[in-house]
Write a structure and sequence with these properties.
alpha+beta, 95 residues, four-stranded antiparallel sheet, single chain
Length: 95
Amino acid sequence: MDDTPFERNRSKKVELLSKVYDHSKHIYMSGFRLLTLGWSDGNTFMPVDFHLLSSGCKKNRIQEAREMDKRTCGYRQRELAQTKAPIVLIDLFGK
């Protein structure tokens, strides 16, 4: 599993864009967290599946998601983007 910040500093109208803290640079940036599930042999990392995560806190989100029909796959992806990383990781293993 890899958790990497995905910076979108020139965007303002991207759905679920949020302020994300980068622990390596110790700064806040606008973007997403890229949660990647992969296989590694110690030297290489091969990604298997990924999810873009937004902030679950409403005050940290810069742009909210549009209203959608709750039966669509897009609605499920938007809901999953706002949940915590351990829950999303269980979903990644479940596929």
